[in-house]
Structure formats: structure tokens, C-alpha cells
């Protein structure tokens, strides 16, 4: 097997177990081995990219700031207040940027969560409680139980998220439906709040991985996250 | 987040508003199909590069699947079966229109948009790069990575040789390498038949 043949196979199927011929080539070729490592990394990123939405729908900081700059014509009507007008506009712009910065998706995990929930937006339309058996089964697959009235769970599904099956729940609250994803395989160091695409969310560390809570608008997801944290029981592995 | 556009009154799987309608309500097969709608929609969206179009494709695909449900012998294979129907539905649409079915400018805006450095922008850039891949490369890549199809299965579905599929997959990733500042591997595959 030559270099080109090896790279064709690696590039086509980076995660496939190498054939004996390819293994032999890799053992003696540092360049192709490096190419393989790079391709495996790239492929993992491709997978993560594809599991989200094709085009990010988040409003860009530029778009958010634009309305502020549109206030400039008003300054022309009051020439004596040019500097105060500019100062006001600048202040508003700075505050806006800071707010956007503070509410930015803090990491890729938050972004991926929003993308995932957007794809299952129909999960928020359920008007009936999910069958108890379905909820229990979904949770059991993730190795957890939830000490919560099952009639509050409107939607329960095991989803593929970042290559892992995770329970995706929608819980009915007084302020509307709230999505809960229990992410056993996503460890986070600290609580992270985020706001993207009209959704508010929080990711909190858990004894095993993390728990994400998302809602439309500016709902108080912290309180729900707190409640879920207290309600989740991590079952011993089978 | 648009709703379905093609759901006719007889459609047994038109359930963006929740439950199936008609005689199929409560049918386990409908429940099974519906449980896969998000995966199908994601798959169709990457193929079609347009959310509304993807919803139409999935709706049509689910309707076809329902009509052909007797052909599904093994429910464990339902996902692959449905993804195949979605792909064919997209191909049918694509062939009918003979053009790329998306507002490309919208899809490509990401590339021209200044974005802060970091993992998010990197992933978005990668998404933009994937969208820019020609369909002949994007389709097998999506089928493999998102659909979980093997090279042989992709070859069969696309009526290509396995070597041709390997070549397309290699070229797709090779193109994506460049956006990472990595040197693309020499592409000395002179055709899709031989390396």
C-alpha cells in the first residue's frame, strides 16, 4: 500500500478500524500516521457540526448593535447635544455589547444544546403528560430516576446528542414548558448561563456529568435546574 | 421554526401539533416514525440546506413511509429505512428542479461574517464549509457521519462503486481540511474508479 492509497482510506473512513495492510503502512509511515490523527480529530468535529443545525441562527453581535447606531440621525436634530448624544449612543452600545457578551453562548455545549432543542421544537407543543412508562423507560436508559410528579413531564425521549444517548424531557411549569437534558457524558466545571436564539438556558455540574435546562424567552431556568438537581437520583450502573 | 406545510388531512403522521390524526392515531408505527422526525429533519436539512424545504421533504418521506409501512419488516432498521426514504425524496426534488435548492447567499453568510475566535465560531465555520461542499461530496459524508451508513450501503443507495464512494468521502474531508489550515492530501485519484 502506498501513501495515496493509505490516505484515501483514512480520509474516507477515519474512524474505521484499519485493515492489516493499512496498519502495516501506518506502522512505518510517520506522515500518514499524523494524517490519520488529524483526520480523526477533524471527523469528530464534523460529527459535532452535523449534529447541530446547518446554519447558526443566533443573532450576531453586529445585528444586535445595529439599532443603536440607527439613533445617530437624531443627533443631527439637536446639534447642541452632539457630544451628549454620542456619549449616550456609545454608552448604550457598550452596555449592549457587555450584555451580549454576558449572555453569549459560553461554549460549544450551550450552542449544541440550543441547536438540538430547536430541532425538537415540537417537543414543546405536547398538551398531554407523557406516559409514565415512557418517562421511566427514558430515564432508566440513562441510569437515572426522577423524584418528580410524572404528570409534569410532557415529553420524554432518548436522543442522540454528541454521540451519546441522553434523556430529553420537557417539564411543564407555571411559566411554560422547560426542556431538561441529563448529560452524563458532558462534565462541566461550573454553572453556566447562556442566552441564544431566544432561549435561556443553564448548564449545571452534576454528580455524573451535567444537567442542562432550557426555556423559551427569559424564564427563570435556574429555579428549575435547582429543582431538577434535587429530584434526580443517579442509579447504580447495571 | 416553521410548521409542516404539506400535511394533508389524510396524512397520518402530520404531528407537529402533537398527535397523529386519522385512523393511525396511536398506531405504534406512527409513534415510531414520529420519534425519528428530529433525526430525519436534521438529515434532510443538511442535504437540502433549507429548513422549510427539509420539513417538506420529511413530511413527504413520512407519508411515503406510512404508505409503504408493510415493507418495513424489522422495526430496528426503521431509522436507516426512513433516512433512505428522506434521501430519495430529496434526490427526487433535486432532480426535478435541477438546481441547488437553497438560498445559497443565506447559507454562506457565515463565512463572510466576522466572528470572534473560539470553539463556537470554529464549529460554525465548519458547518459553513460543509454546506459549501458540492452535493456529490456532501451527500455521502452526511449519510456516513449522520446517517451511520456504511460505505457499501452508500454505494448501493447512490448507485456507485465502493471505490467511488471512498473517493468522494476522501475528497469531502480533504476539502474540509483546508479550512483548518491543514495541508490537503494529494488528490491523485484520477477518477472515481481507481486510485
Report on this model:
The complex is a heterodimer of chains A (238) and B (195). Chain A folds into 3 domains: 3-50, no CATH class; 61-102; 108-234, Protein Transport Mog1p, Chain A (3-Layer(aba) Sandwich). Chain A is 45% helix and 22% strand. Chain A has 9 helices and 8 strands. The longest helix of chain A is centred in the N-terminal third of the chain and has 21 residues, at 30-50. The model of chain A is unreliable at 56-80 and 102-106 (pLDDT under 50). Chain B is an all-alpha fold and 195 residues long. Chain B is 60% helix and 0% strand. Chain B has helices at 28-35, 37-48, 51-67, 78-97, 104-112, 119-132, 135-145, 151-158, 162-179. In chain B, α5 runs antiparallel to α6 (119-132), α7 (135-145) packs across α9 (162-179) and α8 (151-158) packs across α9 (162-179). The radius of gyration of chain B is 18 Å and the shape is globular. Classes of the chains: A alpha+beta (238), B mainly alpha (195). At the A-B interface, α1, α3, α7 and β2 of A face α2, α5, α6, α7 and α9 of B.
Count of beta strands of chain A = 8
Which ranges of chain B are low-confidence, i.e. pLDDT below 50, for 5 or more consecutive residues?
A: 1-23, 98-119
Helix content of chain A: 40-55%
Biggest beta sheet summary of chain B: none
Oligomer status? heterodimer
Q: What class do helices, strands and sheet pairing of chain A give?
A: alpha+beta
Write the layout of secondary structure elements.
The complex is a heterodimer of chains A (238) and B (195).
Chain A: H1 3-12, H2 20-27, H3 30-50, H4 61-69, H5 72-77, H6 82-102, H7 108-119, H8 132-141, E1 144-146, E2 153-161, E3 164-173, E4 176-183, E5 192-196, E6 199-205, E7 210-216, H9 221-231, E8 232-234
Antiparallel strand pairs in A: 1-8, 2-3, 3-4, 4-7, 5-6, 6-7
Chain B: H1 28-35, H2 37-48, H3 51-67, H4 78-97, H5 104-112, H6 119-132, H7 135-145, H8 151-158, H9 162-179
Helix pairs in contact in B: 2-3, 2-4, 3-4, 5-6, 7-9, 8-9
